[in-house]
Amino acid sequence: MKSYRMAALILVFAALLLTTTAHADGPKSDTQPDAAPNTTQSVELEELEVIATPIIQGNEIDRYGATSTVVSEEQMDKLGALDLSSALRRTPGVTISRHNPVGAFGGGEGGAVFIRGMGSSRPGSEIKTFIDGVPAYMGVWNHPLIDLLPVDPIESIEVLKGPQPNRFGDALSIINIVPKRMRGDDFTTTIEASAGSYGTISQSLEHGGRIGEFDYYMGQGFRRSDGHREDADGRQFSLFGNLGVQLNQYWDVRLFALNVDNEASDPGPDDNSAAKEGSYETRMRLASLTFSNDFDMAHGEIKFFANAGEGYWRDQAGADDDCLNDFWFWGLKAREQFNITDDFEITVGLDQQWWDGNIRYTYDNGTDDSVLAPSFALTMPYASTSYLIGETDGWHIIPSVGVRQYEHNKFDSRTAPHAGLVAGYGSTEVHASMSKGISYPGHDVVILFPTAQWQDIEPEEVEHVEVGISHTFQDLFKIDLTYFHDDGQDRYVFTLPPFPPTWSNTEEFEIEGFEASLSVTPTPDLSLFTGLTIQNSTPGDMPYVPETTVSGGFNWQFLEDFNLSMDCEYVSDMYALKQVRKAGTSNTEKVDDHFLVNARLGWTFFLDDWDAEGELYLSVQNITDEDYEYKPNYPMPGTNGMVGVKLTF
């Protein structure tokens, strides 16, 4: 992995170079002469609306040197995304898997998202998924289910890359959905419907408004498809609401609620239809109640949450046997940031989470069996501080440090420290961070082998290092370069035989890579983006860690009322399927490299009598009819398309 260490040195050199170059457009020095008086009469120019950036909204660096990527609703629309994995499919550092046009078949092999190599372990996972900061994943098996995360309530998606103890715990990477809420002072209604290949249909209805200190936003979405193969069908349904009240000058309260109901089938490998794995049903009811405050020297929130869900696997392996999983989460999240001075910041917080689960098996012979998992509880207090030296629009440096403590009711305690440094001049900024990530076992260790000594398992740990640089040149372009290194240890696995099996923390892994992205806006009507991820893993058979991924796209507004969005991606060959938690196993299944091109053409029109704006659009996927797959012998669709209309009143 020496090449990646060389990349880190290149980043440091680039930082020095760009920082020097930034003097040209940085703040004026005190020794520079004042400019001549401006005697020209000022003219108020018409504000130009700049077209949205394609693929991602942008990369963000916080005061602790931690990175995240944000994808907004507008980017999802341009990508023609019907679910979370298609919304993130071009995001640098993210790899996806799927085998149905609509619907994800319960877990890593039928629909999942992986972040810089994290997320392929089954059961269990290194990444977790959240909605409004609330856990939203399969609690019994301790891994995400993509269908629990519908696109309809999404205002934006946050992809937090690597451990960030200052923001979250009990995971090594995070995907968080920020739900829609009413942002304006009027009323709005949006209706959208589309239809296309393979009997695919999609519709949504949303409405929001504000009445005095009260605001609301609610919506409903449905989509289904017969699929491009027999038994590749799927459906998704969601219903959500977001209500808020400004209580007084300092406090407001907000209630978000979500209900989802989905189903996806397994088409099976194309060379063995008898190996079909039936269907997977997912349902969830989630609610979060948030009290937010905003004072002169402090702001924060306390959030109470609860959710309950099911993952029902019907007709496993072509039989009538069912595996019925139920999970429950509840708890609170409190966080307060104190601005001691304009430059000195202290944050304290507490995440308290409880979760339960059970699993029931029903068999062809009429018998059944069940396992009730013990209640898990995890308490995570944390604190961090950062200090700004200088001015953010000039020379500045922000050192930071923090720690998160883990107290579990069944497993050993852990401590996760972190430290960061952000430095820059004007529009150039360098960031570096070191952090430890902690991920506890879930109910999977109990359900798989109830008699095994699962209480002796240690939580998984990752030591994360990241260094990068970003530079913005006026409003023309922004470039981000990042080197990352993850050193994982104590991955829990079981040995079998003998029986009963034994659990142990024996496996280690290492992931090292380089990530780059460039956004260019040469004119208000044209925006371009390209991203590159190069990564390597040890052991070398870790699934969904392609060595090279290149993505790109553009948004172009032309002839006033037309817009064209195109996106493409090259993914090198990679190992696939799950990384099983059994000692001594290796992964031999691979999928070939592929290059995909998609496009979306839209025409904007206005209905003056209805005071409405509309868009008629055509979306085409896999324009070049590429043969590709994310899972061996599960071919993905060829060229296909959707036509739709969207009206906003």
From TrEMBL:
Domain (TonB-dependent receptor plug): residue spans on this chain: 66-170
GO MF term set: siderophore uptake transmembrane transporter activity
Gene3D superfamilies named among the record's database cross-references: TonB-dependent receptor, beta-barrel domain (2.40.170.20), TonB-dependent receptor, plug domain (2.170.130.10)
Classification via Pfam families: Plug (PF07715)
Signal peptide residue numbers: 1-24
PROSITE patterns xref list: TONB_DEPENDENT_REC_3
The keyword Transport is assigned to this record: yes
Localisation: Cell outer membrane
GO biological process assignments: siderophore transmembrane transport
Record-linked SUPFAM superfamilies: Porins (SSF56935)
Membrane topology: Multi-pass membrane protein
Alphabetic keyword roster: Cell outer membrane, Membrane, Receptor, Signal, Transmembrane, Transmembrane beta strand, Transport
Main location: membrane
Any one GO CC term of the record: cell outer membrane
Keyword set includes Ribosomal protein: no
Family of this protein: Belongs to the TonB-dependent receptor family.
Identification of the protein by name: TonB-dependent receptor, plug
Organism field: Desulfovibrio ferrophilus
